[in-house]
Amino acid sequence: MAQFVARNGPEFEKMTMEKQKENPKFSFLFGGDFYGYYKYKLALEQQQLLCKQGQDIEAAPPIQPIPQPPLAPAAPIATPQGTPSMEELIQQSQWNLQQQEQHLLALRQEQITSAIAVGIEQQMQKVLEETQLDMNEFDNLLQPIIDTCTKDAISAGKNWMFSNAKSPQHCELMAEHLRNQITAEGAHFELRLHLIYLINDVLHHCQRKQQRDLLAALQKVVV
Q1: Full domain range(s) for residue 42
Q2: How far apart are alpha carbons 172 and 168 in whole angstroms?
Q3: CATH classification at residue 30
Q4: Which residues does UniProt assign to the signal peptide (predicted)?
Q5: Which of 9, 83, 161, 223 gets the most CB atoms within 10 Å of its CB?
Q6: Residue 218: other Cβ atoms inside 10 A
Q7: CA distance 196 to 45
Q8: pTM for this entry
């Protein structure tokens, strides 16, 4: 929960508190058990998120040189004699340089974002090939949870995860898939909340059944 609040801001926490004010599992949001731990984790996640953003930019693959766009021709600013003054020429040159810098920064950020996304996708594809995990089957079980969040739907999703928790790689792939679903751009509040219910239920079951690999993988994405 702390990671999702750190990523999505206090509005997500506020909506969750409104929806879950009667749910004892979320009592830590209202000063109940583990409230201090939750606040500590939230502060830690916010700090790590800031650090990670800086590290991602530093660790991004080398960026190909970006061709510099041609400078826009300076618009002639006529003086009373019809010739631009030195001050006007300097101002126009500064404007051209600012436009060029903004263009280069936008292209660089786009390339960094694209390189990071490609790297993550390649890593997930590699793990998928190694584990032979059927993510389409997983998605088919997640959809009823997203739509209705019934006990039967959550139980079916939980049982599938435990049946496929065959190695740390299997567990990490399932946990990453859930995190990607929750943090995806455009993911609505109900989707995030219902998948958090599933994760919370699986975490409690992991503790009872001593399923350490799945517990460790899920703890990387939630409190």
Answers
A1: 1-52
A2: 6
A3: 1.10.10
A4: none
A5: 161
A6: 22
A7: 17
A8: 0.48
